[in-house]
Amino acid sequence: MRKTAIWEWVLTASLLSKTEAFTIRQRQEAWVPKMVSLQTERLSFPKPAARDRLQRRGMNEVALDNVIGGYYVNVTIGTPGRNLSLHLDTGSSDTWVNSPSSDLCQNDTKPCDYSGTYRANDSSTYEYISNHFDITYVDGSGARGDYASDTFTIGNIKLERLQFGIGYSSTNAQGLVGIGYALSEVQTRAGLPTYYNLPAQMVADGLINSNAYSMWLNDLDAPTGTILFGGVDAAKYEGDLLTLPVQTPQEGTYKNLMVTMTGLSLSQFQSSSNDNDNGNGNGGDITQVSKDNLALAVLLDTGSTLTYLPGELVEPLYDAIGVEYIIDPDGKLDGYAPCHLMSSSQSVMFSFSSPLQITVPMNELIINRTFHGTLPRMPDGVTDACLFGIQERIGTGSNTLGDTFLRSAYVVFDLDNNEISMAQTKFNATATDLKEIKKGKGGVPGAKAVENPVEATSGLSDYGGGVYVNGAAGKLRMGMGMAWGLLMSIAMVFLGL
Fold this sequence. Notes:
The protein is mainly beta. 10% of the residues lie in helices and 35% in strands. It has six helices and 33 strands. It has helices spanning 48-56, 198-204, 311-321, 403-406, 461-464, 480-495; strands at 6-11, 22-24, 35-45, 72-77, 82-89, 95-98, 127-136, 142-154, 157-170, 176-178, 212-216, 224-229, 231-233, 237-245, 258-261, 263-267, 286-288, 296-300, 307-309, 324-327, 333-338, 347-351, 357-361, 366-367, 385-388, 390-392, 400-401, 409-414, 419-425, 434-436, 447-449, 468-469, 472-473. The strands form eight sheets. Strands 1, 2, 3, 11, 12, 14, 28, 29 and 31 form a nine-stranded mixed sheet that branches. It has a six-stranded mixed beta barrel with strand order 4-5-10-6-9-8. A four-stranded antiparallel sheet has the order 17-16-22-23, with helices on one face. β22 and β23 (357-361) form a beta hairpin. The longest helix has 16 residues, at 480-495. It is globular, with a radius of gyration of 22 Å. The chain starts with 5 loop residues before the first strand and ends with a helix.
């Protein structure tokens, strides 16, 4: 039964005994597979579109009805250990935590209580590194303080030393664990070299062979999912695991986990990702909504609840499905679909370099979002309206495949080889077939490179400029609701209201 709120994921570790993390080890064997597996658990989040708008603007207003969304990892830092819950993000690279002495965390509303704080002087294993930790957002928000190192425990895996930032001055109540490219670390903006972030430190400590990890989020209603550092679970996907090159605006310089998207279409039937007839395995009608020459760079971002694409893709998709823009009770203008489409046999197909396609069932895109316990209405005033999981990208932000896409894909992020492999996910799979990722080219087990990868011709320049914030271009994104409010205000002035 579908819940009446948005469900997000929390990466759980040793703090939640029912989902204990573990390292896979083979006893009394000369060869020991190097993998670190963690289960995920989800929390409810009622306003994903509003949350994404804030995150694209720098995550500066994060109270959000005291409910937290996104991927969170429970960790322990320091000696004695301090427990924190930090946002896990493929679109950023630094780990950082708030200091309890910051003005934000001392606020009477206690905004830092959920994520937790770290006091350097309370840890006997704390080491100061530099004062170059300074995340600056375009709208002036961010976090500033020191880089430090300390012991870092995630599940039953303890790193004796991990570098991270401490926010002594902060306007973001949630700390973060970035697992992206090292070139997006904040200290590189000061001309300093890169350092080992979490997955890189796991490699350095011999816990995994390669800076690579796979993610299986399962479906919208599932209670758990998995992230596997250094390994692949072949029982969690179907069809071929196909490999794409990471896209970058400057050859040899990799900062963001982006691939080329080549098509978007609507199918009347759900289909497998690699059927011989290119996704139309059930013979259903296919409505192509993208142009034939699409080669759009898209960011695979666990930090984004929804998926954001250009208007030239979103508008024909909305027309084909029956999605309409409505102003919700909070005054935001977003795309909503009739809730009854939740039971539709339709699906949205995302195409990449042939033959890779990922099919997202409609019930993964129709999201119950209530306001004071009541669903909004479609423009007819009668039909219940549900938030649609694909929204129009506004302004100069990135084209983003967020959680509404990623739940339907099994994804392997191979940072060492600048490749991303994907396959259609196998929802609610109970079996496991764990395989170790080896070091070097071709190290992802079962993965096959597409024969003719398409290079992106758009979407890279939009994401390449501006101030980089934790690996993401920190450009101020004016949401549709903000733009609508501005237009209404101007109209009222001219009308003398």
